[in-house]
Amino acid sequence: MIKIDAQNVDFYYGDFHALKHISMQIEAHTSVAFIGPSGCGKSTFLRLFNRMNDLIPDTHLTGNVFIDGRNIYDKSEKVDQLRKNVGMVFQKPNPFPKTIYENVAYGLRVNGINDESYIEETVVKTIKQVALWDEVKDKLRESAFALSGGQQQRLCIARALAISPSILLMDEPTSALDPISTGKIEDLIHELKEQYTIVIVTHNMQQAARVSDKTGYFYLGELIEYGDTRKIFTNPEKESTQNYITGRFG
Amino acid sequence: MRKFIEKLVEGGLLISGSISSLAILLIIVFLFKEAGGLFNSPVVEEGYVLALNKDNPVKHLSPEKIMDVFDAEITNWKELGGKDEDILVFRFSDLTNYYPEEELGDEFQYVPDKISELVNKEPGIIAFFPQQYLAKDFQGTVISGDKITPADFFAGTEWYPTSTPAPIFGLIPLLLGTLLVSIGAIIIALPFGLAVAIYLAEIANIKTRSFLKPVIELLAGIPSVVYGFFGLVVIVPLIQKILDLPVGETAFAGSVVLAIMALPTIITVAEDAMRTTPRAMKEASLALGATQWQTIYKVIIPYSISGITSAVVLGIGRAIGETMAVLMVTGNAAIIPTSFFEPVRTIPATIAAELGEAPAGGAHYEALFLLGAVLFIITLVLSITVEYISSKRKIK
User: What residues does the ABC transporter domain cover (chain A) (predicted)?
Assistant: First the structure.
């Protein structure tokens, strides 16, 4: 089943042509990694899926992006509803200056859920889901800033999962973390793949190889190659891809 | 050579820094020294004597009581804790009512004796006369030796700095006037200021913002007398007309003018604080399906609350210290305000209006300095509050 379907997407920051005629289909319950050198457009492309680029002034898009068959750039599409369905984890852990509990409960509250017992149940469930429960169960009412970077990032994943999205976008989720925390988050991605469709942008080629089913290689705003991760990393079709994954540039 | 110049510049900076710190310190010391002088001043106008009959059990009178006596508000010693005896007010000019001019001598050389005699004769007398006519063997109770006490000032409910024989320096009406006008200003300015700050920081597009922000900052640069003039010519008549008041120069008019003046400060500081909310924080909220308004009141305002508080406190600070505009529109009646819609007088306006006519070194002069010191302490407390709040933000 096709979850995300981008058709002929062109994206501009002012006059800068950031994405060039990109088409890509992402299947449900798979994890897809975007790789490529800095500035190649992979984060921009990722941020199209929950319309995060709308926040940047003076940008425009041509082409269509469908999620579950709906054109998310259609005028009738409600952005907040879309973002409920498409969760996002950012490069740097960015918990709110609230308690651990309230961080996870935030998404539920802003979506109009007031049933406190349901909120508590969901908070506990998602914190367990990201394997953070044992570390924070005694300090749910303490500030999220007291956690380590890796714990904060897992909290941010829990926060995104609490509103039960079907897609989880991860924009270099481990680039600010140490290897052990990175390992925990990669394990988590493996588990989450069963229930969610995961799109992850990463600079770390080993990570892409470890966590993804499919990989897309971007270069200068173009999608150079997109296919099974194993194939991309062992036998890429394009020379540019070959050069990048073998570390000859980028 | 270069090292020498660097040392020279460093020395220059050190000297200018110390000089300005020293200057500020000197101003504060001067302020408090002059202000403290008030409590060494006699209750009665300097160079004059206030005396009672020696048998009168009343030995001390506060400035306010003295004024009541001379205004004939109090006419019996009973009310002042004395015997049931009518008060006989004697002013120096009344002397000829008691003694024909020829008895006083060609050069008034017998005046001291006559006054002394009169005070001894009349049990209910309160006599007010120049110091030079105080007889050497005067037997009455001289109450003009009393000093003005801190209670007279800090708990005093009236401000009559030029009343004779005893000027009255009561802080309360001026302090209440200041607080009323300032609090009113904040109540008016805060919702508008925050609304504009939120609009500028989060909603306005770049074009609108780059036009509005400098305009608002320009407002901060307009001299306060211009605001005062505007208030006097536009706001005061408007208030009088709309609210159908006998006078438009009220605490409310002062608050409105001050609110307009405090707005740029509140807007700029609050907006800057809101803009320090990390983009990641906003994006995290929006990415969870929060609307822009939910993000503003659930993330941005809580995140920048200490900056917003600073904005408010700075706004209050500006309002409390403001002189000229308030002087022009509040009507300047030094009475304890009972409503928002009557004339009041603030501390800074009092200093500005009266310092010119207060003789240097006199009690009135010192009282004005004391007012200045009170104002200084209020603004100091406010600045410390701001410091405390913003340091708390840094720790978090």
Answer: 4-245
